[in-house]
Amino acid sequence: MLTREQVRDALGGRTADTRVEETALVAVELVTNALLHTQSGPTGMAMDVYEDTAVLWVHDGDKNTDAVRPRLPAESSHLDVEENGRGLRLVSALVTTWRVWPMANGKAVVAEFDLVERATAAVPAPRNAVP
User: Fold this and answer.
1) Which of 4, 38, 100, 110 could form a disulfide with 24 if both were Cys (CB 3.0 to 4.6 A apart)?
2) pLDDT, tens digit, for every residue of 54-98?
3) Angle, alpha carbons 89-87-44 (nearest 5°)
């Protein structure tokens, strides 16, 4: 799928392969949501890549920002949720943060990703004490 390829091209070599694939999965989910749940479908996708963060923008022509917000009970598990709604839980689990951004010609769903995996981030070596 073109969406996955675009994310891989933008992030390849910038972060761990698993993080690239997670970001690609979120991109596909957001584009698919725009296809399934808006009249316009997706009108564009962009990715801003910084030193340790990537920001994904998926645009559509629908101005209804409330339609994107998950309406799920906090105590339910992913297995208790109807088929519709699981994707946004997946998005929430894989991104640093996400939001819906109203725009003059519709909206954008904006997802931010840490490119540095916290568990494997380099930790400075301790300094030896000088006698």
Assistant:
1) 4
2) 999 999 999 988 878 754 445 445 444 455 667 889 999 999 999
3) 120
> Which residues, listed in sequence order, are joined to residue 99 by a DSSP beta bridge?
110
Tokens of 105: 């010609």
Biggest CA–CA distance in the chain, Å, is 71
Q: At what angle do helices 17-37 and 2-11 cross, to 10 degrees?
A: 140
Contact between residue 59 and residue 44 where contact means Cβ atoms under 8 Å apart: yes
Per residue in 8-19, pLDDT (tens digit) is: 999 999 999 999
Residue 128 CA to residue 125 CA, distance in Å, equals: 9
What is the full DSSP assignment across 59-115?
EES---SGGGS----TT--GGGS-STTHHHHHHHHHSSEEEEEEETTEEEEEEEEES
| CA angle, residues 111, 81, 69, in degrees to nearest 5 | 35
